[in-house]
Design brief:
Keywords: Cobalt, Metal-binding. InterPro entries: Cbl-bd_cap, Cobalamin-bd, Cobalamin-bd_sf, Met_Synthase/Corrinoid, Meth_synthase_dom. It holds the Pfam family B12-binding. The protein is 61% helix and 11% strand. With 221 residues, the chain is an alpha/beta fold. Helix 6 crosses helix 7. It folds into 2 domains: 84 residues, Methionine synthase domain (Methyltransferase, Methionine Synthase (B12-binding Domains), Chain A, domain 1); 128 residues, 3-Layer(aba) Sandwich (Rossmann fold). It has a 5-stranded parallel beta sheet with strand order 2-1-3-4-5, sandwiched between helices. The chain is globular, with a radius of gyration of 18 Å.
């Protein structure tokens, strides 16, 4: 296969969520001497961006996004150590977790995959994450953004508890706070004092990039 055929195959197979083919093509590209950056930026990321665009148009739904995301996750697992070796710059660091009292993680995991695909370094704290654990993770990893996910209306108040914990720890001004989940609205995000809200994984990536850009402009960097 030519490099062009490999890239086209990667794009097409990621789009339809064919994980075995995506991994095979990733390995074929590396074996042919293609760089991990080329595979990522010329095929995988554009394909996932198209998945997001189709979702927004109503052509794709959550299942299609999930299988495409999982297909890309397999390729990323193969490429991540190689990209680290080449020193590819990440867009930023994102700490993510489902709040205390909530064990739902499908939405969170999909957002993580989309963020990684877009170039973020994601630290996933898992589910049932307490305010203290978020505080510890922010101190340790110094992320640009922290994301709180909630699927249950009964656990949404943890957003405010988490933000209060960040304020108490003196960390609130050091990190962008994003929230999301099935029952969450923009109004609720505003009410608890979050910096950003996203209704779905595709929007989350755009919002994260936008918030980071705005922070850089305000910081004059």
């Amino acid at each position: 296969m030519t490099p062009e055929e490999i890239l086209k195959g990667l794009y097409d197979q990621t789009l339809v969520g064919n994980a075995p083919a995506v991994l095979d093509l990733t390995n074929a590209g590396l074996d042919a001497g293609m760089t991990p950056e080329t595979l990522l930026f010329d095929a995988l990321i554009p394909s996932l961006e198209e998945v997001g665009a189709r979702f927004e148009r109503g052509d794709f739904f959550v299942p299609e996004m999930l299988i495409a995301g999982r297909a890309m996750a397999g390729a990323l697992e193969r490429l991540r150590p190689l990209l680290a070796e080449t020193g590819v710059a990440t867009l930023g660091t994102f700490v993510m977790g489902t709040v205390k009292g909530d064990v739902h993680d499908i939405g969170k995991n999909l957002v993580n995959i989309m963020l990684e695909g877009a170039g973020f370094h994601v630290i996933d704290l898992g589910v049932q994450v307490s305010p203290e654990k978020f505080v510890d993770a922010i101190r340790e990893h110094k992320p640009d953004i922290v994301g709180f996910s909630a699927f249950l209306t009964t656990t949404m108040p943890m957003f405010k508890a988490n933000i209060n914990a960040l304020v108490k720890a003196g960390l609130r001004d050091q990190v962008i706070v994003m929230v999301g989940g099935a029952p969450v609205t923009q109004e609720y995000a505003d009410a608890v004092g979050a910096d950003g809200y996203a209704a779905d994984a595709s929007t989350a990536v755009k919002k994260a990039k936008d918030l980071m850009q705005r922070r850089r402009v305000m910081a004059g960097t």
